Amino acid sequence: MPSPGEVRAVAIWAALREVVDPCSLVNGTHLSLVDLGMIDDVVVRPDGSVLISLLLDDPLCLYMGAIHDEIRARTSAALAGAQLEIAIRGDVIWTSEHATAETRRKIAQWQEQRRERLARHVADLPMPRLRQETAGVR
Q: According to the model, what pLDDT value does residue 17 have?
């Protein structure tokens, strides 16, 4: 039978799956911090308090406040009043290798779709004619 701490950790991980990375909101992929591998660990301490460790690709992430707020909001029910500490791992930088295989596949697919859209868009743009004034060539 799992301990109360283990049950709480499972509930917190489930809640964290609902926290969407703000950058992925902007780019339209809507990927969770868990799927991206940005949640390094969830530790339920003996006193019941919880530590969530994050990996970031930039320690000065502009969205850090929003990420903290969303983590607190999504995990509040699972925390059931327990103290929460959110820490950023300073010794490890997030890279796409931390993401799940399925998430890496989704990112690659999304990037390919963007390349195709860009190619179509560029092909439809009217391109100015280039003139070589100095050579007198038209």
A: 96
Residues 57, 93: contact at Cβ < 8 Å? yes
pTM: 0.80
Query: What residue type is 19 in one-letter code?
Result: V
Helix (H) or strand (E) holding 56: strand 50-56
Mean pLDDT of 49-61: 91
Q: Which domain holds residue 55?
A: 4-124
In sequence order, the β-bridge partners of residue 32 are 20
CATH number for 94: 3.30.300.130
- Residue 61 counted as domain residue: yes
Per-residue DSSP letters for 18-53?
Answer: T-B-HHHHHHT---BHHHHT-EEEEEE-TTS-EEEE
**Domain assignment of residue 15, yes or no:** yes
In a domain, 52, yes or no: yes
Domains: count for the chain: 1
- Type and span of the H or E element at 79: helix 64-79
108 found inside a domain: yes
- Our separate counts of H helices and E strands in the chain read 5, 3
